[in-house]
Amino acid sequence: MILSVLDLSPIVEGGTAAASLRHSLDLARHAERWGYRRFWVAEHHNMPGIASAATAVVIAHIAGGTQSIRVGAGGVMLPNHSPLVIAEQFGTLESLYPGRIDLGLGRAPGTDQQTMRALRRGGLDADTFPDDVLELQAYFREAQAGQAIRAVPGAGLNVPIWLLGSSLFSAQLAAALGLPFAFASHFAPDHLMSALQLYRSQFRPSPSLVQPYAMVGLSVIAAETDREARRLLTSLQQQFVNLRRGRPGPLNAPVDSLDGFWSPAEKAGVEHALACAVVGAPDTVRQRLKAIIDRTGADELILTAQIFDHATRLRSFEIAAGARDQLAAA
Question: Helix (H, G, I), strand (E, B), or coil: what is residue 313?
Fold first, then answer.
């Protein structure tokens, strides 16, 4: 079982972005020691609870403070950017940290309509996503004689490109282009199995990848007891509700009960979104991870944990790594 980390660099209530970024680096250093394969950060804009908006800058911060773990974007929302700029950014990162940089691409804006306009993003930009991916791939190929526009750095560098998604669109595109695919079941589980089936059945080998490689995203909240893990989960549950109410904010502290906080409809919606979440004590986490691997056949799991207290968040990832090791031994 291969495990990786998706870090949303949470800004907690009463905290700062500076503290969150320090905590992200500390988590990456621990993840490296615990044998996690990669450490990804995600692009979100105008989100008071997430510190990783300048994704390439955060990747440089993490890669510069670690030694061997792969570091990358999970992901860059490509319609927000020119492919040339992303090729230059990630070509620079690959030049600084050779053999350690991943580039995951999404086609969602990662924000709301008003912020999309502030990003100078047109409403139809997502429609050009397949062409933008092809353009980006071209910038990473060896430059040809007479080529008018080159990515410097970027041309000729091996920066693995992943496609990310929560629907069938990116699964189909990843299959057609022969790219690795990551499904965002940590917040949108509905099409998980159908996307994996479509990706595998339609996959075409490419110079990048000879056979399909699928990664599944999971929220994992692990603690010493099931009860404590469920309590820790309330921070993420509050964040989901606040976002759906149009009031995103910093990550709240956990509470003993959410009674009176959410409506029955809000509770049902959050529970549906978190249907794939792994929440519990070490034995529970081990059993749930095994069940998900058995069900999905995922080549890799990428774990996220929106936990208020940093030391407690570290412990959650440590428990997950221990569960992986126990399953491997068995």
Answer: helix
